[in-house]
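Hey, I was hoping to borrow your eyes for a little while. There's a protein on my desk that I can't quite get my head around. The fold is given in discrete form, as structure tokens running alongside the sequence. I'd be grateful if you could look everything over and explain what you see. Here's the protein in full, and shout if anything looks odd to you:
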Amino acid sequence: MEKVKASSAWVASNSSHVFVDASGLEKVVEELHDNVPSVTWDFEGIHYFDNGPLTVQYLFVLDTLNFCFWPDEELHYDHLAAGLKAALENDSSVFDADRLKSYSGPQLRKLLNWSRPLPLEDERVRLLHEVGTELEKSFGGKAANLVTAAGNSAVCLVELVTRHFPAVLRQLGVLTYSPSLATIVDGKKELPSGTEEEVEIRACTIYAVEKLRELIGTKAGKEVLSIQLDLWLWSCGVKCPSLQHHRTLSIYY
């Protein structure tokens, strides 16, 4: 994780299209005062939850498939979460490692009760196969054993899965885009994965969240985890669905 932070900081300091606004960081911290809103994960409704190993298996599969819902304008996270929940409630073995290794695209669609090909469907299937293979090989087929291997440390786990939200940070005035990049994002045009602009968005987002965390610690005298800010930013984004995010076909977000 430290390598990710260091490389992100380097990109942020050398970027040409995305900029972290120090005054924007200060403003957000001032608005938060000394309290970061406590945001808890709502497991009711669309998510499966039994407070046991099946929940961990469900979340692991959910996180594996949770990326890139566009350009299908009707497909959203809720469809994925609720579809996987329904599948598991119908068949408790649906996420067993040996089955994850064998799913095809049409079978995944049936699992989610989705009638047409999923965005990056081949990549989703490939990742399911990798997850099933590695769980079977190294963790007895159970994602719960992965948690145990991490020492039941939430910090160890969230460092691997934390997502940040550039659209929200831009709305808050923390990130600013060059005119050319703003035109692409606001015009809902595709930004190819791995381009200079796309890399800068990812790196500057990570860097900005870390700077927010550090500033809150300095001004409020309290430690705030990146995952807390991650959840808060996510909640801000949910409240403002009109935000324009960059559109990149990628398995990473």
